[in-house]
Amino acid sequence: MYHILIVDDEGKIRELIKKYAVFEGHSVAEASNGEEAVALCRERPEVYDIVLMDIMMPVLDGFSAVKEIREFSSVPVLMLSARGEEYDKIRGFELGIDDYVVKPFSPKELMLRINAIIKRTNQEKNGTQKDIRRFGGLTIDFTGRIVTVDGEKVDLSPKEYDLLFYLVDNNGIALTREKLITNVWGYDFYGDDRTLDTHIKLLRKSLKDYSRYIVTLRGVGYRFEAEGTV
Description:
Blueprint: E1 3-7, H1 11-23, E2 27-31, H2 34-43, E3 50-54, H3 62-69, E4 77-81, H4 86-95, E5 99-102, H5 107-126, E6 132-135, E7 138-141, E8 146-149, E9 152-154, H6 158-169, E10 175-176, H7 177-185, H8 194-207, E11 214-217, E12 221-224
Parallel strand pairs: 1-2, 1-3, 3-4, 4-5
Antiparallel strand pairs: 6-7, 7-8, 8-9, 10-12, 11-12
Helix pairs in contact: 1-5, 2-3, 4-8, 6-7, 6-8
Domain Response regulatory: 3-118
Domain OmpR/PhoB-type: 130-226
Protein name: Stage 0 sporulation protein A homolog
């Protein structure tokens, strides 16, 4: 059973998500704006397994709420929005959200995304064996989820970490867009595959000079190509 916090100013949206979540055996808490969500997360920081956060809300919008929550909690956040512009997605991922769903959405798909995010999060918490890869000045600590560029720590969004780790794990192998989306996102992807390109763009920006290791394969996908040591 997961403890899910649904944050949306539309009662019908909260009710719809709650219906599917409860049906799958999860418990649900609700907030109608970002300010309420921040207060609930601050009062009970260890209770929620995931937060579903709308963007456009009164009192405090979703972006501002996530920014405040990230100051004291690493709880997974899935952002919901009627706006699907790339700018909004980039802003959300830069704030540290785990996924982004555009309204209207399929409740079934939403629950699959929630399950995938929490499963990944639990696997990371339970991981114990050190796995560190080095490619020149680029160091990737799989266990600690730490990436450094020339000795300086780089802050990536959760999905950027997942994407980079998958690329590195398949160093030298051509990966189709479909394969990347399926394996990194962890569910049958129904959305816009430009989400992958957005994450690649953000990842390259964070890796600076080492962005050259991520090679674009036109008409196919991407490949991580670098010689390194463990």
